[in-house]
């Protein structure tokens, strides 16, 4: 019987994004010092852009409300706009969701993103999921496409790797996935990434979550052929190398780490992690060489050598005992 289409079709490569324009901006590799500097820079940047501290970041600053769909903005649009760009309280948006049911889905989504940026992951996951289940009115959708496309959410896609994402389906689902992961719902976090367009941020989030769940074979399959073209691919190669090490494929893991180190422009933190992981591989190889089980497998041959040496020593002792005295006399 011939293989069906699902069996014969090649496995999709999750890290190749062929789009000219994506919602992703330059990734940030966090370190303790950089995190502190980012915090100070964020306050200064917010002041310079006219942004109220604690509100959602926006590329180019908060937009002024004008016409929505060719018509002057209604009461709902004015209230929601003020809550999104002029308030840092998610409860204000939740209240508007009850006041304007046609805008409820949008209000819950923005309240969820605001909670996410404040580190309230459990609440963010609940609000984001609720917002995606509610259908918006046409006015709410027109408003979102006109005024929310420059809203930025800084999403954590892997350990110490954050990617600024413009308001989009990918931004919402990546934030939801990270929120679920932080809430201890690993399987749901991985499922939230299913169906998103292929991209390096999505691949990094997906493989990091799969590795945390122990699905190292999936990580290796999804990253096969990956090269170090930028910091996101370097971070993904680190995840690949660690999964290969877990599977006992130390040679392939070392190859992946060498690829991380090949590009000189790779972020210093990622290069440092690659050097550390390479040292751990060398330790693994050393432990393997000193493994008692393997030594026991070689023990019979070694005992034969010992026995031969001992027998030779005994023969010398007999010679000395029988003939040495005669020489001394």
Question: What descriptive keywords fit this protein?
Answer:
329 residues, 15 helices
**Unreliable residue stretches:** 1-9, 39-50
Strand residue percentage? under 5%
Q: Largest sheet, order of strands side by side?
A: 1-3-2
Question: How far apart are the termini?
Answer: 93 Å
Could you tell me the radius of gyration in angstroms?
A: 30 Å
The class by helix and strand makeup works out as: mainly alpha
The count of helical stretches stands at: 15
Q: Tell me about the largest β-sheet.
A: 3 strands, antiparallel
Residue-averaged pLDDT: 84
Overall geometry comes to elongated
Helix percent band: 55-70%
Total beta strand runs: 3
Describe the fold and architecture.
This protein is mainly alpha-helical and 329 residues long. Helix content is 63%, strand content 5%. The chain contains 15 helices and three strands. It has helices spanning 5-8, 32-48, 75-86, 90-99, 104-117, 121-133, 138-147, 169-182, 186-191, 200-212, 216-222, 231-246, 250-262, 268-289, 292-328; strands spanning 28-29, 152-158, 161-166. The chain has a three-stranded antiparallel β-sheet. Helix 3 runs antiparallel to helix 4 (90-99), helix 12 (231-246) runs parallel beside helix 14 and helix 13 runs antiparallel to helix 14 (268-289). The longest helix is centred in the C-terminal third of the chain and has 37 residues, at 292-328. The protein is elongated and about 115 Å long. Mean pLDDT is 84; it is low at 1-9 and 39-50.
């Amino acid at each position: 019987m011939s293989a069906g289409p699902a069996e014969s079709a090649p496995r999709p490569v999750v890290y190749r994004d062929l789009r000219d324009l994506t919602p992703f901006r330059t990734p940030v590799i966090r370190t303790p010092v950089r995190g502190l500097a980012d915090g100070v820079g964020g306050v200064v940047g917010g002041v310079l852009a006219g942004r109220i501290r604690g509100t959602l970041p926006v590329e180019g600053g908060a937009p002024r409300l004008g016409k929505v769909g060719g018509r002057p903005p209604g009461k709902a649009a004015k209230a929601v706009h003020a809550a999104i760009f002029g308030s840092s309280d998610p409860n204000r948006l939740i209240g508007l969701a009850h006041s304007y049911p046609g805008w409820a889905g949008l209000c819950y989504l923005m309240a969820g993103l605001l909670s996410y940026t404040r580190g309230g992951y459990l609440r963010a996951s609940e609000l984001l999921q609720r917002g995606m289940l509610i259908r918006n009115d046409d006015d709410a959708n027109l408003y979102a496409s006109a005024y929310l496309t420059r809203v930025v959410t800084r999403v954590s896609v892997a350990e110490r790797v954050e990617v600024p994402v413009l308001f989009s389906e990918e931004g919402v689902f990546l934030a939801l996935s990270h929120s679920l992961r932080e809430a201890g719902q690993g399987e749901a976090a991985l499922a939230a990434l299913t169906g998103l367009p292929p991209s390096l941020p999505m691949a990094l989030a997906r493989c990091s979550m799969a590795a945390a769940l122990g699905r190292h074979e999936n990580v290796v399959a999804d990253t096969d052929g990956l090269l170090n073209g930028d910091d996101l691919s370097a971070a993904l190669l680190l995840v690949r190398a660690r999964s290969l090490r877990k599977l006992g494929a130390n040679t392939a893991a070392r190859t992946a780490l060498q690829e991380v180190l090949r590009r000189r422009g790779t972020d210093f933190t990622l290069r440092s992690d690659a050097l550390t992981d390479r040292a751990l591989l060398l330790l693994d190889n050393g432990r393997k060489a000193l493994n008692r089980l393997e030594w026991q497998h070689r023990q019979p041959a070694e005992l034969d050598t010992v026995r031969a040496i001992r027998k030779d020593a005994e023969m010398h002792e007999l010679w000395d005992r029988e003939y040495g005295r005669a020489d001394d006399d």
